[in-house]
Amino acid sequence: MRLKVEHVTHYQYDVPVSYALQQVKLTAKDRPDQQVVHDWQIAIEGGEHQLHYTDHHGNGVDLIAVDGGSQELVIRCTGDVELLTIDGVIGPHRGPMPLWSFLRSTPRTRAGRGVRALTAQLGRDFASGIERAHALSEMVIEALPYRIGITTAETTAEQALAGEGGVCQDHAHIFIAAMRHLGHPARYVSGYLMMDDRTHQDATHAWAEAHFDHIGWVGFDISNGHSPDQRYIRVATGFDYHDAAPVRGMRYGVAEENLVVQLQVQQ
Predict the structure, then answer these.
(1) This model's pTM is above 0.85
(2) C-alpha span between 264 and 60 (Å, rounded)
(3) In the list 23, 28, 47, 177, which could disulfide-bond 111, CB 3.0-4.6 Å?
(4) The domain that contains 210 carries what CATH number?
(5) Residue 254: domain span
(6) Could you report the per-residue pLDDT of 188-218, keeping only the tens digit for each?
(7) Do residues 83 and 33 touch, judged by C-beta distance below 8 A?
């Protein structure tokens, strides 16, 4: 399946900005099961491209500086990606980060009382680790209904579990914390999903991957209750949201910002 992505991130500032730098991770990964057909392009208005590099997770990173005195920044990403059916299986671990490093917790994925209580409900009657992971995925969405506007990018797995709902980022963090507690390396994935009911979307998507002996990395979209298929485009991976955030940065001054995202993913 070939998917076309048009993603616009528009920052508006209430006063001119003297200096701001954005770290952008919006370049689709090019790999055997996911190939960028046409050049993945990032166009910028109100800023200047400073640098492109590949980080320790294999993510393509672009640094963009906002023009001094500007009151808006527009980052426009476009590209076509050819995807194969992989049924959620990514395969063997690759890259400079050792596999064991994905067992360590982060502030967002610490397995506290809530996560430990969730894993204790799983029991031991499973034919495989993957079967247990799917059961865990179902438990996470039951414990935390999908509701927007309740959590933020800084919300931890434990904080989300103690609340009344969350989004895909929270589901991924809880699942990752639980899988690491159970002894499986796990990581966060950000990317794009072609939805069945609409083309226009408000944000990118997030899911998780866990590693199993003799199989490798396997994806779990907890929010939607299945493993990623050829409707999913992998963009960035990491220990948690912080490593795979589509856009994050810093700025000097007292300017308040307004963020508008326009996203289309279609066949």
Answers:
(1) yes
(2) 21
(3) 177
(4) 3.10.620.30
(5) 2-83+246-266
(6) 999 999 987 777 887 899 999 999 999 999 9
(7) yes
